[in-house]
From TrEMBL:
Species this chain originates from: Desulfosporosinus meridiei (strain ATCC BAA-275 / DSM 13257 / KCTC 12902 / NCIMB 13706 / S10)
An annotated GO cellular component: cytoplasm
Classification via InterPro entries: MeTrfase_RsmB-F_NOP2_cat, MeTrfase_RsmB-F_NOP2_dom, NusB-like_sf, NusB_RsmB_TIM44, RCMT, rRNA_ssu_MeTfrase_B, RsmB-like_ferredoxin, SAM-dependent_MTases_sf
Protein's name according to its UniProt entry: 16S rRNA (cytosine(967)-C(5))-methyltransferase
Domain SAM-dependent MTase RsmB/NOP-type: start-end pairs: 170-450
Major localization class: cytoplasm
Subcellular localization, as worded in the UniProt entry: Cytoplasm
Amino acid sequence: MIKETARGMAVNLLTRVEVEGAYANLLLQKNISRLTDSRDRQFVTLLVNGVLKHRLTLDYALRKHLSKPMSSLPHEVRAILRIGAFQILYVDKVPPAAAINESVELAKNYPKFPGLVNVVLRKVMEKGWDIPWPDLKREPARYLSVRYSHPEWLILRWLKRWGAQETEALCKVNNEPAQTWIRTNTLKISREALKERLISEGISVELGLLVPESLKIQDFGALEQLASFQEGLFTVQDESSQLVAHVVDPKPGQSVLDTCSAPGGKSTHLAQLMQNKGEIQAFDIHNHKLELIGQLATKLGITIIQPQFGDARDLPGIRLESQDRVLVDVPCSGLGVLRRRADLRWQKEEQGLLELPSLQFAILERAASCVKDGGTLVYSTCTIEPEENFELVKKFRIAHPEFEPVNLVEDLPFKLEEKRDIQQAYKGMLQLMPHRHGTDGFFLAKFRRTNPQE
Ligand SMILES: C[S@@+](CC[C@H](N)C(=O)[O-])C[C@H]1O[C@@H](n2cnc3c(N)ncnc32)[C@H](O)[C@@H]1O
């Protein structure tokens, strides 16, 4: 095994991802603390996530300079080449010559390969992006797939729906580094006071524009080590996810049902908005994840959440028409968060996508049955696929005329700018897109149960 410098650890982890099919984020979490310098920890994370995200493009560029197939090389040598090429092509702060020298050093663990690594990476440096690409006009899917490192089946879906320009814009944004957002725990501190506190802890902070609790942070080491984090003054949550609880709009004292709730990001936000008064039944089908809800609630000083083990298609123990507010944050394809989850794009298959809507619909229908007369139902996903979003909502509306859409224009904590967003919001729906809104891809729909006889 290669020595554990930052680059050495990145090679070892990427090899394990490839050979064992291990999850990169879990491997990073487990191993990274062995590096004592926080800059090394950040660098390993950058290399591992960067190589996973850009793997298709990196392999395409490397293959142009290799005389043998990548598959004939040992896994570790492939990882060394990818890490080298990633630094040369994507990381401005590493001089290309340093990237090559460090890669050759790593390759010395594999006696036949330092020469090959040196020659190939020198060519990557010389040629840069100036290599023959597939033709955008003739082979748009292939071009976008290798140029932006996305699976071709996914590009084909998007091209059919949005055309080349919009698909390219989306792919570009998916490859940008994800920003870190946190949510102020307003039960303990105001956003302004938290901002000051974080600045005093050496962190760069910017106020978010979409919701009143969000802050964008930069230049932090390990968040868990900050006193403000340990005191439960905030939790990490993307800004678009923070919108959901505001759209649910629960009031103190109400009964709230969160059908798919682990690890508790939205349940705890709902509790904040309820001033920790009332009752939240938080279901999830994975028992081990329910513990996370309890841990997060305790840390944030929240006592009104009752984690419940159960399938949201059944919701055992929840009476019909008993809840003031119901949130249905369904399991989904996650294709709105490709920027944030480096290897997610390679874990998905089209067949899996096609199977999701029937599960989502079954959950939504059972959840809807729990909404009181006059109560509201919010459906949310972190995807941009219409089958899981608009089309599913349309089917629900046809099957359930007892639910009317709730106009979101007034309900959102920020002002919509684009006409098409406003039109959708009037019909109770909002689709955020990474390339148009700068957020994760996120979908929301809100309905109210009405009594048709009245
Ligand atoms: C999008 S995540 C929920 C995130 C959560 N609302 C939050 O904000 O932290 C979807 C959750 O649904 C759960 N899940 C999947 N199938 C389910 C089912 N049939 N019934 C209940 N929960 C389910 C998963 O375990 C996962 O935790």
